[in-house]
Amino acid sequence: MIPSSPVPGRLPGTSAPETGLVDVEGTTRSGKEEITGESDSSEVKEFKEGGYGWMVVFSVALVNAHTWGLNSSYAVFLAYYLRSRDIAGSSPLAFAFVGGLSISISLLVSPLVTWCIGRFGTISTFRIGVVFEAISFVGASFSTHIYHLILSQGVCFGVGLGFCFTATVGVVPQWFVKRRSFANAVATSGSGFGGLTYSLATNAMITNLGLPWAFRILAIVAFVVNGGCSLILRDRNKAVGAKHVPFHLDLFKLPEYWLFLGWGFFSLMSYVIVVFSITDYAQQVGFSASQGSLAAAIFNLSQGIGRPLIGLASDHVGRLNVAGLGTLTAGVVAFFLWVFAGKSYPGLIIYALFGAFAGIIWPCVAPVGAEVVGLSLLPAALSIYWLVLVLPATFAEVIGLMLRTSGVDGYLNVQIFTGVMYIASFVSIWLLRSWKLQQMQILGTMDDPLAIEAPNAVQSGAKASENGRPRSYIMNMFVFRHV
To answer: Which residues cross the membrane (predicted)?
Structure first.
């Protein structure tokens, strides 16, 4: 039996974390709480779930569209680079490294961004990312050598993406309780719609205007939209008592946190390969550049439409249930649809329609993280989480291109590797689900899975753990309950 901490989200020597259900500021199960304003006034304000939070959801969705959505369009850039000679000193692996670097750098700077949020605030930190992202596209428009692209589209864009993403990823869950997963999924769906828009637009701009002006137009659009969003965005860091600590190393003492990391590590390894390879795969099996761009666009459209549905299902069926079954679905369709049907264009389109499951980590990571460590520790947990994911983000596409061979079946090894990574990710999240079920059994909350997060339930659960004996992880893998 794998040992677990007696209280979910409780680190050794710490008090019960605020989770959004019953917190240190007085949150109630109905989603209302008493908070103190930023001024010294003693006037008590009542927080209602949603409200201005929906404006926050809208702004974060636009930010995701013009950060992660733009990053998804690198599949189009990559297919163009691999078939042109515009960049001197280049190689397929170097181009793959540029794409991986943009994601890994964004994750690598997360501890710095977390510190900046605590020091300067969410909005100021976010605006730093807006500037870096615009500069990256302008710099890339003048690139003639591969190291120019590495510095601009890789490093600089990664810094901008990291500041924008890390500053906004934890904001939406602060505004919701009962609809937390749905609201978070709506916000992350922006990356899907952005990927859809810019996969098609980037291909059209490169064809009609050339590569330099494609970059410059993207720089202008991203700066204007993200800058406007910085005027709308609001956080509730003070109200929820968020702890913006870059390195909370005690988290590594929690076995459940390791399972949480494993889910993200293997899932991101697969996702990066799929999102960056689908356009090149389409062209390798005989389709045109426009058809490859359309396949990538449909893949992103599936994420844009599917993520709110995933969030809605998470709130009704269970966050860990949906995250686990969605990850399993991504592995199954990689093994069967992509391998056996991908060489026909209708089959490739059908596989692209399952894109929401391929990127299921994004709508689920914050709600699942809150289930593991609690809402107050979520910023610190995600800071380490993104840092761990630097490795798969950096080398996933490099591994994918190394596994690629020539010919129509050149992507077979890539497809098998992708499927195996998704299955490994599913095992991690399903074991994490078993841990959560153990905690529910210890605390006697099997009929009310949300009650586990209340302080009174935590205290009674600590006593129950002294007398009870939790069921094994393996047995709980076959128990289906709302969790």
So the answer is: 52-82, 94-118, 130-151, 157-177, 182-201, 213-233, 257-278, 322-341, 347-365, 372-391, 411-432
Provide the 10 A C-beta neighbour count for residue 159.
24
Please check the confidence at residue 27 and state whether its pLDDT lies above 70.
no
Cβ contacts of 434-437, under 8 Å, gap ≥ 24: 434/473, 434/474, 434/475, 434/476, 434/477, 435/2, 435/4, 435/255, 435/256, 435/259, 435/473, 436/8, 436/256, 436/320, 436/371, 436/483, 437/471, 437/476, 437/479, 437/481, 437/483
Residue among 144, 154, 125, 109 at smallest CA distance from 230: 125
Predicted pLDDT of residue 243: 62
The Cα 193–Cα 47 span in angstroms is 31
How far is the C-alpha of 166 from the C-alpha of 385, rounded, in Å?
A: 11
Yes or no: say if 147 and 98 are a contact pair by the CB < 8 Å rule: no
Tokens 């042109």 found at: 84
What is the Cα–Cα distance from 117 to 140, expressed in whole angstroms? 28
Does residue 267 register a pLDDT over 60?
A: yes
Q: What is the mean pLDDT of residues 370-393?
A: 84
Question: Given a cut of 80, is residue 343 above it in pLDDT?
Answer: yes
Q: Any bridge partners for residue 34, and if so which?
A: 46
* Interatomic CA distance for residues 448 and 164, integer angstroms: 36
Q: Name the average pLDDT for the chain.
A: 81
Whole-number pLDDT of residue 111: 84
**Quick one: CA torsion of 443, 328, 199, 76, rounded to 10 degrees?**
120
Q: Report, as an integer, the average pLDDT of 54-66.
A: 93
SS3 category, 46: strand
HSE-CB of 346 using CA atoms within 13 angstroms: 0
The predicted model scores a pTM of 0.74
- Three-state DSSP class for residue 304: helix
**What gap in Å lies between CA 326 and CA 314, rounded to an integer?**
11
Q: Tell me, what DSSP letter sits at residue 344?
A: S
The SS3 assignment for 33 reads: strand
- Residue labelled with tokens 């998470």: 314
The reported pLDDT for the residue numbered 438 is 83
Question: Model confidence at 244, in pLDDT bands (50, 70, 90)?
Answer: low
AA letter at 415? Q
Rounded CA-CA distance 128/200 in Å is: 28
**Predicted confidence (pLDDT) at residue 454 exceeds the cutoff of 90:** no
Give me the phi and psi of 44, to 5 degrees please. Answer: -95, 125
